[in-house]
């Protein structure tokens, strides 16, 4: 009737089988008790009582085994979850796992975690979750601030079976207003310091939490506190590393953007930093210089500064030197080297910084300016950078040329002493020079009382060269009339001005010891012929010039008054002024 229990079954199944068999036996004996008695067999009441006691003992044992099984399952879940939260170093992930586990272990309705700020020490809310693992609005947890503050202050947990009846909590307004029933709150403690609080509650069910729940959550919180602290430390380290990386990237960008070569070395002379400008100036790749001694990676530089290294490292005195090395791939250079000490936070010299400035281009520019300074007005000199780009050896290009000559100067010169004559003609030449430079023209040369100006040469490239030449001529004529207002009547002279446009050869002429900048070609001859045709105060321009400036200036065609063999001049144009703008 009764089956033997399977020894491989679980303890609960074995106890349950035995208990059921005892119940069945007890029921059978009670059912057959009367029949047995009638047959003269007396069943001792003690047997039935013992069977009842055995049944009760089985039921009690079953309850204890079930409770032990539940605790074992909770501990297994606790172990698995602890392993999970310790496997992550992301703070938010760890916090979510901690509060979800706390809610699951205690059967709470909701929970949240506050952590103490490492800098200010204030408690700051970090995460709130519900039993279905959903993130909740933080404003819903203002009710429990008093409980959390108490646990954080004392480091002691609080468990309330019914918060409304608990004399420790019922006096707080937040408890009375929001009426949470069951509350469980434990501290997060690391090395004896409260780093935060885990809070869980249920607003509807009283007597939900007991001392076993408290002990379980405290054990869990001990592990969770370490996991959270590890994640926070990792986050701070990651943030610090990101800041260091950002600063390093910023430093690299700054070093890369500096025009000067920047090289740093430790006290042993080993190169630590070698920026892009240093690569470009010295013709050495950074990968070939970093980590190597300065004397090996840059022997030319080391030779120049070797005697200056000791004062920098030992005395902290900056040094500088200018050298002219021949760098492979770049040729002869002019370099300025500046050495300064590198000091740590304690003020100790730990190395040196070497700034390398390439002065080669500046030297070349100075040479260029020395050549062209006699040709150009000051406003144009700053635009010259490379003598090789100027084309001073001779280039063919379209230019406009202005030639102005004082009318009647020969007769006038016979009336004045030489020194007075030079004073008067200098005034007229000054007027013509100022007019040319006002429109960035180049003074080609002075020929006694005449001046020649050039526009759109390699020294003063101009797309509107014809316009500039005509405006300079008009200005020259106006300024001469203004000069007459301060000169005696017998000193008043007039310019005859000719302007021509065309293709000419422009460059530097002369010997190596003395050279002059000038233009050769048909427009030069034509400008001179136009100037010879001009009357006092008259401005005559060529047809090519008139074609470029016709919309800007009022002109009228004239038949040539003088001609020159081999030079065609079918028509010339007299400039009477600037055209008015049409509305």
What does the overall shape look like? elongated
Low-confidence segments, ≥5 residues, pLDDT <50? Answer: none
Structural class: alpha+beta
Number of helices: 17
Question: Care to count the β-strands?
Answer: 20
Description:
The chain has 583 residues and is an alpha+beta fold. It has four domains: 66 residues; 149 residues, GAF domain (Beta-Lactamase, 2-Layer Sandwich), CATH 3.30.450.40; 101 residues, Beta-Lactamase, CATH 3.30.450.20; 188 residues, Nucleotide cyclase, GGDEF domain (Alpha-Beta Plaits, 2-Layer Sandwich). Helix content is 45%, strand content 24%. It contains 17 helices and 20 strands. Helix 2 runs antiparallel to helix 3, helix 2 runs parallel beside helix 6 and helix 14 packs antiparallel against helix 15. The longest helix has 47 residues. It is elongated and about 180 Å long. The relative contact order is 0.05.
Offer a quick outline of the entry.
By secondary structure, the chain is an alpha+beta fold. It is 45% helix and 24% strand.
Summarize the topology:
Blueprint: H1 11-38, H2 45-86, H3 91-106, E1 110-116, E2 123-130, H4 145-154, E3 158-160, H5 173-178, E4 182-190, E5 193-202, H6 211-257, E6 261-266, E7 271-274, H7 276-282, H8 286-289, H9 294-297, H10 299-315, E8 319-323, E9 326-327, E10 331-332, E11 335-343, E12 349-358, H11 360-372, H12 378-381, E13 395-407, H13 409-413, H14 418-438, E14 442-447, E15 450-455, H15 465-484, E16 494-510, E17 515-520, H16 522-533, E18 539-541, H17 543-549, E19 553-558, E20 572-578
Parallel strand pairs: 16-18
Antiparallel strand pairs: 1-2, 1-5, 3-4, 4-5, 6-7, 6-12, 8-11, 9-10, 11-12, 13-15, 13-16, 14-15, 16-17, 18-20, 19-20
Helix pairs in contact: 1-2, 2-3, 2-6, 3-6, 14-15
């Amino acid at each position: 009737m009764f089956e033997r229990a399977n020894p491989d079954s679980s303890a609960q199944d074995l106890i349950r089988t035995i208990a059921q068999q005892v119940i069945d036996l007890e029921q059978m004996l009670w059912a057959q008790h009367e029949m047995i008695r009638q047959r003269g067999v007396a069943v001792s009441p003690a047997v039935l009582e013992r069977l009842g006691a055995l049944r009760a003992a089985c039921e009690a044992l079953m309850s204890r085994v079930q409770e032990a099984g539940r605790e074992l399952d909770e501990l297994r879940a606790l172990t698995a979850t602890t392993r999970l939260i310790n496997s992550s170093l992301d703070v938010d992930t760890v916090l979510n796992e901690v509060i979800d586990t706390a809610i699951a272990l205690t059967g709470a309705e909701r929970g949240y975690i506050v952590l103490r700020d490492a800098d200010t020490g204030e408690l700051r809310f970090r995460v709130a979750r519900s039993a279905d693992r959903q993130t909740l609005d933080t404003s819903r947890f203002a009710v429990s601030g008093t409980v959390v503050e108490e646990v954080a202050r004392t480091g002691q947990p609080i468990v309330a079976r019914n918060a409304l009846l608990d004399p420790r909590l019922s006096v707080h307004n937040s408890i009375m207003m929001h009426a949470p029933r069951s509350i469980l709150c434990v501290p997060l403690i690391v090395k004896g310091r409260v780093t935060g609080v885990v809070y869980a509650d249920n607003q509807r069910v009283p007597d939900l939490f007991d001392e076993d729940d408290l002990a379980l959550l405290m054990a869990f919180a001990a592990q969770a506190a370490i996991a959270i602290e590890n994640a926070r430390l990792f986050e701070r380290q990651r943030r610090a590393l990101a800041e260091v990386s950002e600063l390093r990237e910023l430093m690299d960008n700054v070093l890369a953007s500096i025009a000067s070569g920047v090289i740093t070395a430790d006290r042993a002379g080993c190169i630590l930093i070698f920026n892009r400008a240093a690569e470009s100036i010295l013709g050495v790749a950074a990968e070939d210089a970093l980590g190597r001694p300065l004397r090996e990676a840059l022997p030319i530089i080391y030779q120049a500064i070797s005697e200056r290294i000791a004062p920098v490292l030992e005395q902290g005195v900056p040094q500088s030197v200018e050298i002219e090395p021949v760098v492979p791939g770049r040729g002869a250079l002019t370099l300025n080297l500046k050495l300064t000490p590198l000091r740590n936070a304690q003020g100790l010299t730990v190395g040196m910084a070497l700034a390398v400035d390439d002065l080669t281009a500046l030297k070349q520019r100075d040479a260029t300016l020395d050549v062209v300074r006699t040709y150009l007005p000051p406003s144009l000199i700053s635009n010259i950078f490379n003598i090789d780009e100027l084309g001073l050896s001779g280039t063919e290009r379209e230019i406009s040329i202005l030639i102005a000559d004082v009318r009647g100067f020969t007769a006038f010169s016979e009336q004045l002493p030489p020194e007075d004559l030079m004073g008067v003609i200098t005034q007229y030449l000054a007027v013509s020079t100022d007019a040319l430079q006002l429109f960035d023209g180049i003074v080609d040369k002075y020929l006694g009382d005449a001046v020649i100006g050039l526009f759109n040469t390699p020294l003063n490239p101009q797309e509107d060269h014809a316009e500039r030449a005509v405006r300079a001529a008009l200005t020259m004529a106006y300024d001469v009339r203004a000069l007459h207002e301060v000169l005696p009547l017998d000193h008043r002279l007039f310019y005859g001005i000719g302007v021509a446009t065309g293709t000419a050869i422009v460059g530097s002429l002369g010997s190596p010891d003395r050279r002059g900048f000038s233009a050769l070609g048909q427009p030069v001859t034509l400008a001179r012929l136009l100037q010879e045709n001009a009357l006092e105060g008259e401005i005559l321009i060529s047809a090519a010039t008139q074609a470029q400036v016709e919309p800007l200036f009022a002109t009228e065609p004239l038949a040539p008054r003088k001609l020159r063999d081999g030079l065609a001049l079918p028509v010339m144009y007299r400039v009477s002024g600037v055209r008015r703008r049409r509305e």
